[in-house]
Each structure stands twice: as C-alpha cells, then as structure tokens.
Amino acid sequence: MTANTVTRSIKALVRAPDPLTQSAVSGHLGSAPNIEIVSEERPDPADVAVVVAERMTVEVTSLLRKIKATLRVPVVLIPSEIERADLFMAVECNVVAVLPRAAATSKRIEEAVLTAATGGGVLPSKLLGELLRQIERMQREVLSPHGLHNSGLTPREIGVLRLMAEGLDTAEIADKMCLSERAVKRVIFGVTRRLNLRNRPHAVAYALRSGVI
Questions:
Q1: 147-210 has which CATH code?
Q2: Residue 60 CB partners (closer than 8 Å, separation 6+)
Q3: What is the C-alpha to C-alpha distance for residues 61 and 54, in angstroms, rounded to an integer?
Q4: What is the pLDDT of residues 49-82, one digit of tens each?
Q5: For the whole model, what pTM was predicted?
Q6: The domain at 10-136 falls in which architecture?
Q7: Which residues in the chain belong to E strands, given as ranges?
C-alpha cells in the first residue's frame, strides 16, 4: 500500500533503543519536507509513532501499549526480527506498519510514516499472510464456538442491526426475526452497552464500519 498524498506536516514521535539509532532515524525523517519530529516533552500531539526495536520483548510490548493508551496514534515498528507469534500482539498495540530493520531505508521509513498517518498499513507479504491466518484461527477456535463474529457481534445482533439499517422499527424487526419486541430491545441494549455505543444509529454505524452489514 502506498502513501496517500499528504498536504500538511505529519508529526512523528521516534523511540529507539539507543541514542545513535534515535538520532539517525529522527534525522532521516526530520529531513523530509512534510514530516516533523516531536518529543514526548513537547505539547504538540504526534500523528504517528516510530518504534525501533531488536525484537518484541516485554519492554517493547509495554512501550507499545503505553503509546496506544496515551497517544492513541498508529505505530510504525522497525524490528531487527519479529516472530510470527508476536505479530498479532503488535497489531493489537496499534502497529500498522512493520519494516524489518535490514530493509528499512530512509525512503521506506518515510513512506511508512506517511501511509500510517493517512490510515494505511504496510506489512511484508509473509507477515500479512500470517496475520490473516491468525485472524482466521481466532475466528474458528475462539469466537465461533461462542457464537461471536470478529467484530464482537453475535449472529442475532448482526441480524437485528442489519434490519435496523434497512429502516425497520422494533416491531417490524421482531416480526422478521420471530422474536418478541422485548427481546429485540434487549439485543440492542446489550450491543450498545457492551461496545460503549451511544444509540441505535451509532450501533448501525459500528456494524457498517466492521463490515458485517
């Protein structure tokens, strides 16, 4: 996936395991015309975080979780090596781009930052294939046995939301799904409460974004 056109300066926070690497990566990115390097001490919020690491250690995972919790920005991870088993954890920590350090040229890092800032992702084909297999495995072994979809919705919830999206009211949904109106209301209440959604339109929007309706 290539970087989209960026018309504003992208603020990037760089974290590296040693001062030399920190300086090199920051210097490369800072020389790009549309990327500005920021520090954690500055009040300016970052758009993207760039994390350089040897591997996905406990410390690196903790750092990624901290970035996710405090900055809530996409992460470009540049590891010397990454195990397939660590990939899913990285994605859960907002990592949207993985560049093996041996192949991380200045140009590729810059492109990954711009792609991440515009909502895209960069994964080597082997890692992408492994990620898809892990997702399929999670759906088959964890979610499906409990009647869940990887969106966090059950088949009944998806059915109710699909009919809501078509404009049906509670009584019409109950009739279509052979449920009581009270049961339909319980389904909707359960979805909105569990997923912290504000109302019915918000629930429909969530289902649309998740690709289930």
A1: 1.10.10.10
A2: 51, 53
A3: 12
A4: 999 999 989 899 999 989 988 888 999 999 998 8
A5: 0.58
A6: 3-Layer(aba) Sandwich (3.40)
A7: 10-15, 35-38, 48-53, 75-79, 95-98
